Structure formats: structure tokens, C-alpha cells
Amino acid sequence: MASARILIVEDEILVAREIESHLQSMAYEVVGIAVTTNTVIQKITESMPDLVLMDINLQGSQDGIDMAAEISDRLKIPVIYITAYADDSTLERAKLTNPFGYVLKPFTQQDLRVAIELALFRQQALRNEPSITSGDTLPASGAGGLPPTKLRTILCYIQDNLTQELTLERLANEVSMTSDYFARLFKLSTGKSVHQYVIHQRVERAKHLLRQSDLTIAEIALECGFANPSHLALHFKRIVGVTPKQFRHF
């Protein structure tokens, strides 16, 4: 998504300008720079960015974590933290806001590129998931699949952890179910087994990165959770019909 619109929230203007330069060289549109949290909401409502890059230590009535929580709750816009803070207490607070990425300073342009591309991919994937509402309930027989809240939880968990080993047991534990029961309800909900769904999501992420990034195929394989480029190529050709290299050059 080379045309993505991005708002920078950073109170060190030199750092903000460095980020802006990186984004422009990657063909992203910078819609503004906010230096205090007091102006962020106004800038977002005026420009409606696709993504917000958020420093944590900011001037204003809130810090970046409080601001990100408000953006997520009110405006549903993804946030990536760009910060020098990696202590346990800061990370725990940041995790509660469900960020789409966490980039530590000092960073490289490639660090930014990967974080942004994965965040935009995750946002698009979430938009494409079947619509479910908080009022939906699971029929007593279990024939309707996972309850909506558990389905939403597990789909987000898969998107956030595609680079990890996503075993059936690990996923079932995330929603406090036995493996067999979870596997049956998951397939009823998605039409795919857990393994099939994970592979398809990894291939979809690979397609996105092949088209929208300069990462090598070996780097993309790792970013998508495949063991190696051959593992990626095997599943990619089976699902897409062409090799990753052929897909990139179409």
C-alpha cells in the first residue's frame, strides 16, 4: 500500500523530520506531524490517516500510550509505537492498547518499512474478516462454530503471531478450549482447518510483501512464518498457482 496516508506523532522535531524523510522515500504520504498529544485527535479528524506512528514520551495531557488507546477505541485507526522505551512496565502498558507494531529507536528505514507493511496488511485482513457482532451467540449444539468473541480473539492472535509456531494446542489454549473441540468449531467458523487457515494467511501476507516491499524472498519467508524459501514456494504455488518470484514480477 504505497499510497498509505500516515500521521507522525513525535515531539522531537528532528526525529519527526527523519521519519518523514524515510516515509516519503518509501512513497507514503505524510499527512502531518503532531508534537503534542493535545493536537493529535484534531489532526486525525482533519486528515483521516491510514496509520499513526506514535512516540510514547510526549508533551501534553496524555502520553503516547494513553493517546493510542483513545485512537484505537474512538477512531479504529492502527497505531505503531516508535520509541526508545523498552522497559517491562512500558511494554505491558503498550500491549494493552493492542498496537500494530513497536519500533525501537534508533531505527532504520527497513525497520519502518517492515513494521508499516505488516500493520497495513493486518488492518486489511481484519477488515476482510466476516462481520460478527457482540450480540451473536453460539447455538447450544455448537453447530454454529466459535462464539464471535473467541473467533475474533483467535483470528487477531493468528495475525499477530504468524511468524511463530502456531500449533493447534497453543491456539486452543488462547481461548481456553480442548484441542479437538476448538478444531471442530474453528473449521465450522472459517471453512478451513486450523493448519489450512494459518497457511493461507501466511501466503496472503507473502503476497502483500512481494508486491509492496523490497524484501528478498528469503526475508519474506521468515516474516510470514515459513521455515525457509522452499517451504514458502511450495505452499505459495499450491495456493496461488505461481512461484513467489513469478508473482512478484507479474
From TrEMBL:
InterPro entries: AraC_XylS_family_regulators, CheY-like_superfamily, Homeodomain-like_sf, HTH_AraC, HTH_AraC-typ_CS, Sig_transdc_resp-reg_receiver
Modified-residue entries (4-aspartylphosphate), positions: 55
All copies of domain HTH araC/xylS-type, residue ranges: 152-250
Domain Response regulatory: 5-120
Superkingdom, taxonomy of origin: Bacteria
Keyword terms, alphabetized: DNA-binding, Phosphoprotein, Transcription, Transcription regulation
Organism: Nostoc paludosum FACHB-159
The organism's taxonomic lineage, starting at the top: Bacteria, Bacillati, Cyanobacteriota, Cyanophyceae, Nostocales
Record's protein name: Response regulator transcription factor
A Pfam family this chain is assigned to: Response_reg
